[in-house]
Amino acid sequence: MSFRLLISYAHPDDESFGLGGLISKYVAAGVEVYYLCATNGDVGTVSPELLNGYASVAELRLSELAAASEILGFKKVYTLGYKDSGMMGSNFNQDPACLWYAGQSKPAEVTRRVVEVIRDCKPHVVLTFNNYGGYGHPDHIAIQRATTEAFTLAGDPAYVTGHEAWQPQKLYYSSIAKWAVQIGVWRARMMGKNPRAMGRNADIDIQAILDHVEPVHTRVDIRDWFEAWDRASACHKSQLAGGFRIVPKWARPVLTPYQLFTRIHPKPAHNRVDENDLFDGLTAER
Can you give the pTM of this predicted structure? Predict the structure, then answer.
């Protein structure tokens, strides 16, 4: 029996930009990798010409996810269908159909839907965002909270969903090297920019990202998987095919050789890197 990994993220493109190297590596090693995509990405900024042939931004974004999924090799993609909430404080946050609104007004519903996915695919390892949602996106925070709660509830037979209870063995939050964010803050200031108002829409707070970096316990080498990472990221043309493609290829083995994670369960005894594989110490017999 092979290992199974569930990635619980918010948007079409989160999987490729954030974890393209890791996913490619594990699929090649025989791991069954599943993706839970909580929203349709409706609020993402899209160039009008890219919408030709698509009825909506959501349809375009999901088609890009389907293309990336073919490259990455997911066993199955689960889509929850919530609307994108936009960045924190935007008017989109108040749309009753968006994930942030659902997470605030009816969190048990969102958690239950994640439990159902966990019980359906029976992962040994579950992976989601950190407490700040990576860069403070409300959808990232909402799915992180629901996934963290669902991790425990999925193994509780008293929590009835119509599916057999299943307890994953490990829970991780994605992380980033603190030094890399520190460089981002320094670079912004050197360029005369405000590190609290960066990005395409000046809505990314790099200082807050730095303030919320969590300890790294797991470091997975992905140096052999940059090409697959690039190809998956390139599928998300509407989002400028971004991710770590912005790092020059010659510099990647030095600057981004690993993907980093914070182990939440089982809780580490010390805040230091103590493993180089999400499946360290596990057996796939159940």
Answer: 0.96
